[in-house]
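Re: [ENG-882] Designed sequences occasionally contain unexpected residues at chain ends

Forwarding the minimal case from QA. Structure tokens:
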């Protein structure tokens, strides 16, 4: 049995830091019933939501710019003139600016968001015609609509096909200004007044419908983007982790909490978690972000890495002279160390322990030189020392390589703490906004 200090754990547990969404199978309606099936829990507190909200305007801008406004046709009968037909074509948005975004967490309901001082110019073409027995006119004119809008969205989080999804159908726009400007002075004043009266109303409906639809679409794109990012982060070769949610997220005044399965998949095998010990009291609220991770998540991951041949290390030169206190003047030694059985992790309030068995082979550089083979046996004290000195360095380079490959260094993680508990680990931290993720998301959204 090897006792390891707390600073051993961060490279391993950080594997779950970005893993918030991923497809899975079904959800339980009651989060309390889902605790036992949840291997990983994520708690995002109000200060963290405030940091994310700082960039909400960028996402809303993407929704406005990405929206495609359909052509609209209509008609109206007027005295003396007869039937007036019109069509709005090529509606585009220009000069978009957004003031500020505010939000509120509403327990048991969702998130209330207010986007204020949205100003934009919508440009397009009006095709119109009118006629009577005396006159028949058909024409087109370019137009602009100057607008100033407040936008309200009340997203509700739910379980959609095993992942966190957002329903933004509760969406409304308040128009403080909507002024129609026709290009050129040749149009009669009555025509401008007519268009101002009923075309601006039509434009309102078109803008509201398309913007709210686009916000819902962008929310889904964002969810898919986060899911894909998390899936890529947790996948390496044939090893992946299914962290689909076990129940809908819970929203309180102070945090949003989601419950994830944390099942390891390797070579068509999936682990099972059905006796998790999570309770909300295990987490506090003074940090921005919390992860609660069960040993039942870590051990299948470690087993899969062992079965995939990840834990091996070759040592030669001066490292061997320091590490192997044995006669070696007759050769240039190389020490090869690998895991010969799956390590077993167990955490407690005292720290963490790993039970592991490692094998080693000492080569002396000549094919005619005898090789020294050895294997640890846990029941001997010297084997405990051997496991600590030789086996953990086998794990650490592989974990560091994996984290570097997956891009953990791109995230601004502030003052992380790893707190081992009985059968689980709590990871708590503050963080800065991941600007590179926003840039990548906006790039893909606006392609």
């Amino acid at each position: 049995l090897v006792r390891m200090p707390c600073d051993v754990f961060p490279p391993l547990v950080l594997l779950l830091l970005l893993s918030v969404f991923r497809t899975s199978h079904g959800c339980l309606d009651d989060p309390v019933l889902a605790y036992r099936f949840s291997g990983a829990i994520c708690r995002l507190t109000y200060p963290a939501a405030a940091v994310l909200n700082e960039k909400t305007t960028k996402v809303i801008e993407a929704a406005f710019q990405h929206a495609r406004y359909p052509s609209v046709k209509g008609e109206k009968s007027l005295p003396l003139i007869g039937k007036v037909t019109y069509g709005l074509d090529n509606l585009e948005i220009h000069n978009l600016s957004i003031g500020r975004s505010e939000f509120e967490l509403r327990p048991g309901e969702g998130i209330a968001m207010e986007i204020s001082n949205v100003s934009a110019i919508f440009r397009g073409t009006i095709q119109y015609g009118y006629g009577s027995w005396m006159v028949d006119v058909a024409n087109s004119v370019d137009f602009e609509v100057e607008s100033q809008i407040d936008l309200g969205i009340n997203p509700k989080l739910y379980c959609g096909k095993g992942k966190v999804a957002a329903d933004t159908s509760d969406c409304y726009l308040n128009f403080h200004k909507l002024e129609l400007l026709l290009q050129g002075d040749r149009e009669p004043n009555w025509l401008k007044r007519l268009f101002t009266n009923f075309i601006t109303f039509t434009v309102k409906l078109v803008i509201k419908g398309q913007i709210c639809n686009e916000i819902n679409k962008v929310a889904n794109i964002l969810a898919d983007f986060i899911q894909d990012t998390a899936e890529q982060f947790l996948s390496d070769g044939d090893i992946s982790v299914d962290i689909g949610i076990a129940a809908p997220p819970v929203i309180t005044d102070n945090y949003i909490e989601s419950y994830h399965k944390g099942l390891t998949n390797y070579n068509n095998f999936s682990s099972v978690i059905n006796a998790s010990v999570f309770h909300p009291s295990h987490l506090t609220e003074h940090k921005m972000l919390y992860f609660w991770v069960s040993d039942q998540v870590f051990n299948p991951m470690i087993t899969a890495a062992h079965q995939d041949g990840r834990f091996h290390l070759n040592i030669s030169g001066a490292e061997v002279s320091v590490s192997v206190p044995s006669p070696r003047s007759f050769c240039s030694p190389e020490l090869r160390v690998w895991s010969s059985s799956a390590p077993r992790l167990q955490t407690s309030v005292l720290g963490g322990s790993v039970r592991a068995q490692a094998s080693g082979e000492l080569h002396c550089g000549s094919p005619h030189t005898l090789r020294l083979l050895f294997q640890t046996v846990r029941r001997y004290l010297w084997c405990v020392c051997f496991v600590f000195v030789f086996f953990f360095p086998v794990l650490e380079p592989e974990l560091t390589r994996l984290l570097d490959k997956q891009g953990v260094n791109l995230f601004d993680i502030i003052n992380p703490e790893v707190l081992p508990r009985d059968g689980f680990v709590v990871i708590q931290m503050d963080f800065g906004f991941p600007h590179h993720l926003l840039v990548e998301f906006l790039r893909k959204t606006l392609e």
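QA comment: On inspection the terminal residues look reasonable. The CA atoms of residues 44 and 75 lie 51 Å apart. Proposing we downgrade this to a documentation issue.
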